[in-house]
Amino acid sequence: MNFVKRAALSLRARKGRTTLLFGIFLAICTLLTGGFVLRDGAARQEADAQRRIGVDATVRGDGLTPAAADRIGRSPLVQRYNTVVESGSRPADVQPLKPRAPRPEGAQERPGDGNLRFTGVRESELLLDFATGRKKIVDGRGITAKDAGRKVAVLERRLAAANKLKVGDRVTLGSPDGKRKETFEIVGLFEDPSPVPLHWMPVRDNPVHQIYAPLQAVSALDPAAPAEEAVFKLNSPDRVQKLKSQVAKVFGESPFRFDVNSKAYEDQVRPVQRVGVFADILVRLISLAGAVVLGLIVLLTIRERRDELGMLLSLGEKKWRLIGQHTVEVVAVALPALALAALCGLALAQPMGDALVGAPQEDPASRTWQAEPPRPAEFRMTGTDAAKVAGIGLGISLVATAVPGIGILRLHPRSILTASE
Known about the structure:
With 421 residues, the chain is of the alpha+beta class. The protein is 50% helix and 16% strand.
């Protein structure tokens, strides 16, 4: 009789053992499917976090200039960057709000105290206050990299209201010493949540008197304006040291300060990485445990069927055909279990992933900018995952029959039939 047909008859005759094998295979393949889906989903989530959050490296130093920042920002290591230049603007046709309290007696006036605060930026949305949502554009838009070389400005809404200005109007701003003046177009108004101080403070320190403009425009109006800092966004902490080396080359002998803020990256990536490691360990353990358990079951089955095997061998059946029969029996049970496990694993992967990873969280205090909101973790079954599960499942079935099959090769009909009498 054909050993394949004999395997089918054996499965039908031993329904209890067949059901047990099917249940074990289903559990193994379901866990394998869930492990692969979790691992791939964690990898996608980590890649998304790298692209979306990144790591912030802040550079400060006397040798920092907009040109030096641009040179560093052109590095392939950098995704985005922002340079901040601090200056002041002597009021021309933009008058500051009057203080609510008089100047204290004995308070000395420092140079520039009466100027508006004039800050040059490459992109205003990359400033910490705007990135965290503390300051918001309430009308128009902010400063962008495309505004380089243009005379545009963004004013605080209360300063604009006090001067009856709106988006689209043009204002004249003076240099700190009042010797130069430039006309700027108002392209946006922002809101600072800080209240108007009840006590007296210099015009420059009042948060209402903040004006943003492209850093080239500020530098043109005040060539002596220092570059306060430059912040560079990297998509991985692995690139930090390489960027630091490039910064050192740009600064040469000039000292600089290099600070890294990777808290937001680590807070979101570390849980995802833990899920990926857990899923990888799960796949390995399930593969090993599955092979051991199924191997023991097949071994016990062979021991129970010694009389049957001895009878077949005495009738001239070849040993490799007996091993082939057991292999067919195990594979015939494994295939439907694989198909059902694909559905079960897909159904369980998303809730398992949500429970392990959780919803992506944002910590406004720990990030410098956030280009887009975090996306929920996505766990889905792919053709590659199904192929991996099928390969491992069938590999387990072959190992589970090949190892006990060594015992079949050692069988001798005479010893089996004599021992059974």
